Amino acid sequence: MSETDPRISDALQMAVDRGEAGVQVAAYVGDQQIVDAWIGPFDPTAPDGRQVDGSTLFPVFSVTKIITATAIHLQAERGLLSYGDRISTYWPEFGCNGKEGITIAHVLAHQSGIPQMPAGVTAELMCDWDWMIEQVANFTPLFGPGEKSAYQSLVFGWILGEVVRRTDAQHRDFGRFVRDEITTPLGGHDVWLGLPTSELQRAAVLTSELPTEPLPEEAEIAELTRPQAVAPDAPVHNRTDVRQACLPGAGAIGSARACVRVVAMLANGGELDGVRLLAPERVRSFTVPRPEVEELDPVLFGGRPVPRPVGVGGLWLGGTVMGTGPAVLSHGGSGTSVAFADLDSKLSVCIFHNRMFTGFAPEDPNHPFAPLAQAIRDVADPYISASSESTSAAHSRI
What are the E-state strand segments in 48-190? Predict the structure, then answer.
């Protein structure tokens, strides 16, 4: 375990006592890092072997969607696209089979009507960007655009990633765009969409306690969005080809200390350490709920319909163990990875791990990360208070 505040150390140990294996946590208030800690085995099947450290890389699953949405918002910030634009404006081949009216806003809100993955997809085919783009372009919607909320578990990334690629003057592949324009400028060098061979040995081994029994008949749509052959779970995401592919819906791999810098940029209203990517007004707009936000989603949580507070900017409005609030942006990942940003307090948090589990509601006090969430808040409180006092003093001098 790292040398850190004993409250964080104790909470990490409590997470292990509740069944966790390798865990990383990192947090900022404003531009200041306040937590950078870790515990546990790199490979949960070999607990007496190599241990996690601060540079260990973890698959983060749908936390990836924060990065992909940020790429779209960056292109909007630069005037290269508008949210109300049709996808086919930039990707003409997409505009067929009833998809002509799907907009960027529909995709961000998970209301595009095409949450499914291609028929016959395999892990190998999923890793082939060109194959995926061709298949998505030929999709027929399950619903009309804007008619229904249906979480785009995986395909979210290819739709938006291809729009970014086509609006990029250099037409870079999406993983390169993210590194050049988002993660490297923010100092988050250990965030990867396509892990190089040289870094493979740093990626933690996953184990899973996710249910593997067939989904109930009423969860047919959920099965279409994340078929077992490409499920965001340990058997697929321990594969080398999957780790080395650019999978922009749920395939990022990174350290908590690197990924949290992207989240901290959002918590700070679009800027971190003097590097501004987005205007404060744009980031604040992401807290607006999507249309019909209370509608039950047939995809999330294994097809058990539940409302999910999703914002128009593609991020969740709460829904993680870190809690909620009027200015919270967050995203969870399969197996319970966590990314959290509060625009009011400027607190940002990432919690990553290699033991995938489900079954704990975010507010459940028995959640393995519940003590860690409380410890982070306890550590953050004086920094948040100091930041508020500094802001108040600055305003009083204006």
Answer: 58-61
Fill in the amino acid letter for 30: G
CB 335 within 8 A of CB 357: yes
Strands (E), the chain: 23-29, 32-39, 58-61, 191-192, 207-208, 252-254, 271-272, 275-276, 296-297, 306-307, 328-333, 337-342, 347-353, 355-356
pLDDT digits (tens, 9 = 90+) for 152-180: 999 999 999 999 999 999 999 999 999 99
Q: Please, what is the Cα angle at 115 between 82 and 91, to 5 degrees?
A: 40
Q: Are 269 and 343 in contact (CB under 8 A)?
A: yes
Tokens of 211: 């249910």
Q: Which domains does the chain have, with CATH numbers?
A: 6-211+223-392 (3.40.710.10)
Whether residue 1 is predicted with pLDDT greater than 60 in this model: the reply is no
Q: Which tokens belong to 337?
A: 């990875």
For the stretch 371-397, pLDDT in tens is 999 999 999 999 999 877 666 555 555
**Of 381, 355, 266, which Cα lies nearest the Cα of 41?**
355
- For residues 190 and 57, is the Cβ–Cβ distance under 8 A? yes
Pairing of the two strands 207-208 and 355-356: parallel
pLDDT at 358 over 90: no
Structure tokens at 302: 């294994």
Q: Round to the nearest angstrom and report the end-to-end CA distance of the chain.
A: 45
Specify the pLDDT at position 2. Answer: 44
State the Rg of the chain over Cα: 20
Q: How far is CA 41 from CA 56, 206, 239, 353, in A?
A: 11, 11, 19, 10
List, edge to edge, every strand of the sheet that includes 23-29: 32-39, 23-29, 347-353, 337-342, 328-333
Query: Does the pLDDT of residue 44 top 90, yes or no?
Result: yes
